[in-house]
Amino acid sequence: MNKKTWLITDSGCDIPAGWEKLHDIDIMPFSIMIDDKEYWERLELTPQEFYELANNYSGIPTTNQIFAPRFEEKFLECIEKGAEDIIIVLINSAGSQTYNNALQARENLAAAGRLGNTKIHIIDSHCYSVCYGYAVIEAAKKIKAGQTAESIVAYLEDWFNCAEIYLLTFDLRHARKSGRITAAASVVGGLMGIKPVISMIDDKTTVIKKARGEKSAVEAAVDVMMERMVPGTPWLMLRTTVLEAEDYMVELMTKKTGKPPAVESYVGSAVGANAGTKAIGVIIRGKPRR
Question: In this structure, are strands 279-285 and 263-266 parallel, antiparallel, or unpaired?
Answer without folding.
Answer: unpaired
